[in-house]
Design goal:
2 copies of one chain form a homodimer.
Chain A (H helix, E strand, L loop, with lengths): L2 H19 L8 H11 L6 H12 L4 H23 L8 E2 L2 E2 L1 H5 L1 H19 L10 H12 L4 H11 L6 H26 L4 H28 L2 H4 L5 H4 L5 H5 L1 H18 L8 H11 L4
Helix pairs in contact in A: 1-4, 2-6, 3-4, 3-9, 3-15, 4-6, 4-9, 7-9, 8-9, 9-10, 10-14, 14-15
Chain lengths: ~290, ~290
């Protein structure tokens, strides 16, 4: 399979769906809809929704059925970036090579744009067709738990509180498991649910998502240390300057690289029962590790 | 009926349910759960959830069935207050006589505590039992639309953008309809849905909520001008200082008072078809107007 072509096709599908689900930029009040769209259509990789769709395919499901969940997860991911970038949080001026939402629209509108994307996510998710095994209660619950105070937000809190503190490896794992892995796990699980997956398939995909999520975050940490600002499209070395908890800081660069490779093997192994149907998930996992770290 | 006793009983029921729905204050990471509970259990009047329960009763439903929706609306109301109080928004130091969330926990945690309460609201709402006429899709959709970028958040944006601008009466109405009335309308509608209300009942309650919401906001505007800080438990005259859009500023104090009375009559009239079953809704509407304005 041609991964580049596959990614481009899926990105287009997801962006068309997001555009359909979101209010027009001109909808009153225009400021908030412009701000939501500014961040949502800022050239994101669409990793979470693509994983969601690929998991649905691995379970024999239809792309169309997985699209609402996929788009909901992307809205939540974008909202978390907008709030993460705020001066009271990470205080980032750039994201994906462009000024962050609050730099363009002001801090107040950026808070509200994040709030609105989070709310929209649940409106979109509510349009998911339940399957025989999974009803809307489970689908909404899956999203709310992954994005809630014991997962995504727990990771952000731990991240905030770890700044300037000595870093333990378990503390770091906690941050990554909650801030990153939980959202990837939920993405593949939601795709599987839309395909009426068996409990066994759901479990295997959870393990895949967990390993992939940690691998992804370790690589992000490594790239922050090794790459230039220009290449990243955000301020590089920033994590180091802010004394943020990162894998390279906790266990060194070489060990971090080996950890990323080990986690990727773990991710691939979790897919064994799917055989050829998981081809795209395997390719996506490889793609994440093939970043230049 | 003894309204004071009724309110106290309902407040207790709602607070017990909220306590059950929310993670413990000690749940990891404790900071976020302490912050969420600090604002959620800060002596709020529980107006929205009480209206939700009273609407369920007016439609012949059970309190128990309406509690998830009622609590979801209170979580959303509290999140909107936390974010509204932030320095980048209204910049309020006090709320209900206590320091605001960001004053106690810092701006970053306050942003996240609001996010977490919004997310929790949908987790709670997902535990609502659908009825014959209303499925979970409609219930989640009702909440998401009321709290979204074209209602609650639209009102907040318009409010932010109106500061320091000349105030028109229609601009003001837009703010109140979206920032306040939409949440009250959704509260009574959700109560009605939990009671499997007819379309006619739902429509009547929407009209009731709309009139009540506007009345409530006009009175809030009046009180801000006429009351002292001590009595309000927040910085009085603040709206005036910040040149905020208020009814007294737009049409004067006397006209504002008459408008509040007119809207209350409108609210009562909307309940005519319910007869004695709406006794509590009538009492609640009176209660809102009987504030010392």
């Amino acid at each position: 399979m041609d991964l580049k072509q596959y990614l481009a096709r899926r990105q287009k599908q997801i962006e068309r769906a997001l555009d359909r689900f979101l209010p027009r930029a001109s909808a009153k009040p225009a400021t908030i809809h412009k701000a939501m769209r500014y961040s949502l259509f800022a050239g994101g990789k669409r990793l979470r929704p693509i994983l969601c769709l690929a998991a649905a395919e691995a379970c024999g499901g239809e792309i169309e059925a997985a699209l609402p969940s996929a788009c909901a997860m992307e809205c939540i991911h974008t909202y978390s970036l907008i709030h993460d970038d705020l001066p009271s949080m990470d205080n980032d001026d750039f994201r994906r090579g462009r000024p962050t939402c609050h730099k363009v629209f002001g801090d107040g509108i950026a808070v509200l744009a994040g709030d609105a994307l989070l709310t929209t996510a649940f409106e979109i998710a509510a349009s998911t067709q339940p399957t025989r095994r999974y009803d809307l209660k489970q689908i909404i619950g899956e999203i709310a738990v992954a994005a809630g105070s014991r997962k995504l937000i727990a990771g952000q809190v731990a991240d905030l509180e770890a700044e300037g503190q000595p870093i333990t490896r378990s503390g770091l794992r906690y941050i990554h498991e909650n801030k990153t892995a939980a959202m990837l796990i939920a993405s593949v699980r939601l795709g599987a649910m839309s395909a009426n997956a068996t409990a066994k398939q759901l479990e295997a995909l959870s393990a895949f998502g967990a390993a992939l999520g940690l691998a992804f975050q370790v690589i992000d940490d490594i790239l922050d240390v090794t790459q230039t600002s220009e290449k990243l499209g955000k301020s590089a070395g920033k994590d180091l300057t802010a004394q943020k908890a990162t894998y390279p800081a906790a266990i060194g660069l070489e060990k971090s690289r080996r950890e990323a490779q080990r986690l990727t093997r773990e991710a691939h192994d979790a897919l064994s029962a799917f055989g050829g149907k998981a081809e795209r998930l395997h390719a996506l996992a490889n793609h994440l590790l093939d970043r230049d770290y």
